[in-house]
Specification:
The protein is of the alpha/beta class. The protein contains 15 helices and 11 strands.
């Protein structure tokens, strides 16, 4: 689907949902004030501000308005329902803890019921819009797929699920190459593609067969363009690429295929990330570490002999090692560079157990961030032995070293932190680290920071 249209649709949905919340509020307030004599003190205004903020927060965390969500009505509706449930819970918590007794309970109930009903109405209207795009003869993209193979079947599946106005008419393939029942009809062989396209009013042709495999496709491409039909080639790169998608850039007229998109390759993004890292780290060092280091250092020294800080070489960006700082949480031992900490590890001190459970032992790494060895957010740095071991055992492990390691990361806030007992856990961690590398944005970093704070307050089972 057109990306610009998707952006407009996302903005429209956000505005409509916020309009629902505010409309219900003002209508209810007007009714209760005029009919029942309920006044409108500042508590009502604060309540309105909170509801707007709360809806934005829950839909952002729940990824309700992402482009992949809104093109699938079922996913959009399901995530909207979940966001509304969290929204309702947060509203109740706000009223309970802030003792908003001035606000009428009937008013609150009216708000929640009214907002829920109108949000449902918004989704119903959105469904009608989706159906309009799918059924409109003027807006619909009628598609024929050349070839019947795994790539063609996958292509059709994506077109069905990720586009509002796409309608697959069928496949064009030689009958002897089709040995199963197809979801869409086999319209003709390759030589009869144009006739079938004109018959059904097709606007786009997708070919999963390369012209090098069938010379007649060159003439078919010219014929399609003469008939005002867009012709698109879908290369099968799966034989030598394991990625689900690749990215094509151009150096003058030369196409360059990349296996992944890396936003942090852009110099501007690197500068923005570095500014974010420096500002946050300076604030933490000035207002937190200035008093935390003496207090925690004293507690460490009172319990066991040894340094306050534990310094260990870890794997950094481009696999360059750097000295990573932590508060010492174990007694001095000769296995710290070889063996990972485990649950009920006898090397961990009582103070260290508290530091690790609350993640306070990681705070000295803000000095590493200021120095430039680390970022606030990124893949967690591993000890050198683990990097060399897992690089041999886990595919794509070293890809995480393309970016600076972080104090917290996407894998950590999704539950993949601490001890890795098997290869499967490490593979999931790597999967999340690579997703972060490919989808980085400054807002994603901010989101991960808030998720980290939330997890710390809630308590994490893997923190030991």
């Amino acid at each position: 689907m057109n990306n610009r249209f998707l952006k407009h649709l996302q903005i429209t949905l956000v505005v409509l949902d916020l309009a629902v919340i505010n409309l219900i509020f003002f209508l209810s307030r007007s009714f209760f004030r005029q009919r029942l004599g309920v006044s409108a003190p500042m508590e009502y205004a604060y309540f309105l501000y909170f509801m707007n903020l709360c809806w934005i927060l829950t839909t952002w965390i729940g990824q309700v308005y992402t482009s992949k969500t809104i093109v699938n009505f079922e996913t959009f509706s399901r995530r909207s329902k979940t966001a509304f449930l969290y929204f309702t819970g947060l509203v109740i918590i706000y009223l309970y803890f802030f003792h908003q007794t001035v606000i009428s309970r009937t008013f609150i109930a009216t708000q929640l019921v009214g907002i829920g009903c109108l949000l449902f109405a918004n989704r119903f209207i959105f469904l009608l819009i989706c159906q309009y795009f799918r059924n409109s003869a003027y807006l619909a993209r009628k598609i024929v797929v050349i070839g019947y193979n795994p790539v063609a079947k996958k292509l059709v599946h994506y077109l069905e699920n990720q586009s509002m106005n796409s309608r697959v008419i069928g496949f064009c393939e030689d009958q002897e190459n089709v040995r199963e029942v197809t979801n869409y009809p086999i319209l003709a062989n390759i030589s009869g593609v144009l006739e079938e396209c004109k018959r059904y009013g097709v606007t786009e042709i997708y070919s999963t067969i390369a012209p090098e495999q069938n010379d007649s496709l060159y003439e078919l491409i010219r014929g399609a363009e003469r008939s005002c039909i867009r012709f698109r080639l879908v290369p099968d790169l799966g034989s030598f690429m394991l990625k689900k998608q690749v990215y094509i850039d151009y150096l003058e007229d030369m196409p360059i295929i990349s296996l992944r998109r890396e936003p942090l390759e852009d110099l501007g993004n690197q500068i923005r990330r570095r500014i974010f890292d420096v500002i946050i780290s300076l604030l933490v060092c000035i207002f937190v570490l200035t008093w935390m280091v003496p207090l925690i250092g004293l507690a460490i020294l009172l319990e066991s002999r040894g340094p306050v800080f534990f310094v260990q070489d870890r794997s950094g960006k481009n696999n360059q090692s750097f000295p990573c700082l932590k508060f010492r949480s174990m007694v001095n031992n000769s296995h710290s560079d070889m063996n990972q900490a485990t649950r009920n590890d006898g090397r961990i001190t009582r103070v260290g157990r508290f530091l690790r459970r609350t993640s306070l032992d990681e705070f000295p790494q803000f000095f590493n961030v200021l120095k430039g060895d680390m970022s606030i957010v990124g893949p967690r740095p591993h000890m050198l032995k683990h990097t060399s071991d897992y690089a041999e055992r886990v595919d794509q492990f070293m890809i995480r070293q393309f970016v600076k390691p972080g104090i917290t990361g996407w894998a950590q806030v999704n539950g993949y932190r601490g001890e890795t007992r098997d290869i499967g856990q490490m593979e999931k961690r790597i999967e999340h680290d690579i997703w972060y590398l490919e989808n980085w944005s400054l807002w994603l970093d901010v989101r991960i920071v808030f998720m980290t704070i939330y997890n710390l307050l809630r308590g994490e089972p893997n923190a030991f």
